[in-house]
Amino acid sequence: xxxxxHKRVVxxxxxxxxxxxxxxxxxxxxxxxxxxxxxxxxxxxLSDGAAGLLRPxxxxxxxxxxxxxxxVNDSYSFYENLLRNRDEPCxxxxxxxxxxxxxxxxxxxxxxxxxxSQDFREATDEELKSHSFAESQLKIxxxxxxxxxxxxxxxxxxxxxxxxxxxxxxxxxxxxxSFEELCGEYDIIFNCTxxxxxxxxxxxxxxxxxGQVIRVKAPWVDKxxxxxxxxxxxxxxxxxxVVLGGCRHFGSHNEQVNERNTxxxxxxxxxxxxxxxxALKTDYKVWVGLRxxxxxxRVETEHIKNDTVIVHNYGHGGYGVTLAPGTVKYAVxxxxxxxx
Length: 340
What we know:
Oligomer: single chain
């Protein structure tokens, strides 16, 4: 790839999609001039608040089921390779856990992870019983166990930005109001702007999914847990904190903490894992974010003025961490086809 014609590339957005795009372009096209432009970095990005477990919901969809599965597989492989490289700690850890349901066995099935995680299986009767608690009237009827990867963005994003900079990339703090601002200055624009892509692209298919989670210190929790639709407990190995969630409010633009949501999340998570009562005796943090949902994740190229090519990559909903490396690889492959 190093013999390809010289190009000026700009990545717009420094969340999980943006930094992965920059890393992949630098890997595939080391002779390109690369710039990353964003007005939010690290702790100010939506990605920073993510629980970070690689687990796509089954409704997540790209151009086809096959391509969607490939995105998941490619993401898993990318993170696994980083996991093996212990010389570069970047917030990647392997974690096992359960998806439980009190209602329906279909909730515990996941065709994406079944094709990706090597140990995906049904939970045993003993596992179901050991996680059912009479005092909280929780009777788990169905479950699945599997091993996946947790990406802690508070570590991964700064690591990636340093790697981009060390590889010769320029990083600029600037808010882009229109992609046309960049035409003439750059040959290729990667649009990794998440929720703002709706406005920048005049894309009415982009809508927010409001999420609220709680981060609490609970170093004894070493597995992840999901219960039915939106209750989850996901450990961050590096600092002993655990993310408790959650909620999924389609179409809500409210970025304020909702105390009732907090109460419901705590109640549901303690019901699933009673030992969390101890954790809540200490301080905890509540986070709210608007996840960029689109009925089909948009990964495609577009030509605008001055022969500038835009590579769009947005609309991942709450699954940006899960799908970032996969959709990025697909996006860069699309770029390759444009220039061949």
